[in-house]
Amino acid sequence: MSNSSAWSKETHSIVVTVTRDLVNKFLREKEPDAVAACKSGRFQRKIFWSAGVMEFWSIDQHDKWGRFGLWLHLGIDPFSGRFAWLKIWWCNCNPRLLINYYLDAGRQVGGRVLFNHSPIVYGLTSTSPIGIPLMTMSDRGRENNGIANLHTTIRHQLDPSLRGTLQHRWCINKMNIKAEAGWSQFRSQWAPGFEDLLDFGVNNGLYSPSDPLENLVFRWLAVPWLQAEIDKWVQKYNTSSRRANKRKILPKGIPDVIHRKPERFGSQNFQLIVPPEMFNELQQEWAPLDDAVFQLTPPGFHAQADAHYTSLGCPAVSRGTFWSVYSALLDRFRSGLEDSVSL
User: Fold this and answer.
1) Residue 72: HSE in the Cβ half-sphere, 13 Å Cα cutoff
2) Alpha helices in 124-172 (DSSP H)
3) In the predicted model, what is the mean pLDDT of residues 23-36?
4) Cα gap 316→140, rounded to integer Å
5) Among 111-115, 195-199, 285-289, which is the least confidently predicted range?
6) What is the C-alpha separation between 123 and 152, in angstroms, rounded?
7) What is the C-alpha to C-alpha distance for residues 113 and 116, in angstroms, rounded to an integer?
8) CA distance 342 to 164
9) What is the largest distance, in Å, between two alpha-carbon atoms of the chain?
10) What domains lie within the chain, and their CATH numbers?
11) Which branch of life, at top level (predicted)?
12) Which of 110, 104, 137, 136 is CA-nearest to residue 124?
């Protein structure tokens, strides 16, 4: 064996064990700028604090299903962890659509509002079914301007002393933490099975989102079914206790219970009651329901789809039947197109 090969073998067999502290010390001495840059990019754990129920609604959009032509949006109460809404639609960037989510959630919240154990009422009884949080919060984005401006308008009408203030918190650098945590729960608990199902259709050529007819048929069939499944998950989530987290300072418990009984958790409900007439007027002004964004599909297509679906016997849609029902419905549309062309 030559000296060079012996030296090569020797160098490859040498293992030097060095402690982490020694390496860190060496890097701090030799590469202080690189160490500082690395530390600045490191995740730092921070504690989110909220004063009570309905202090905030944190809102956010979710674009990861855009490859299917589906878009999601949520609103969540950071204090209780309760979803105010979680919606799926063919877009999530139209301000009128998002305003409608906000208004619908306000109509559904309701309940009795107490400040220091005294009812606070704006023009109605304390059992009014319409309520809003003190503030809304979101990432910066043009699509969120609608909710920010509407919520501020409502607050100004309820309390003129607030005029000149913005009743919305803009989060910078992806710091809308509670909404992101809500998406994380959704992605880990509900989404995987349904995402695999939709990927199957795309990957096997059953559905092409870029095809106008296939997209409309898919949208007409998928959105109502998926929304119903999401609603079931949200109800289960809002009525189930979360896993204990020693780093969390917000209440630990069932979100719906925290929402209804904040006094059990040493807090209170900051919900503001809004007259129904005000909501109805704002609905017409800010998000009229005759806007095209609220149509799942064009009216003419919807009528045809409903007729074809009825002719198929209105088959139940589930994870096991979705693609077969979709394919049968698509075939009816294509057969109709071929018949019209032949005529």
Assistant:
1) 21
2) 145-158
3) 84
4) 41
5) 111-115
6) 18
7) 10
8) 65
9) 98
10) 3-37 (no CATH), 56-191+248-291 (3.30.420)
11) Eukaryota
12) 110
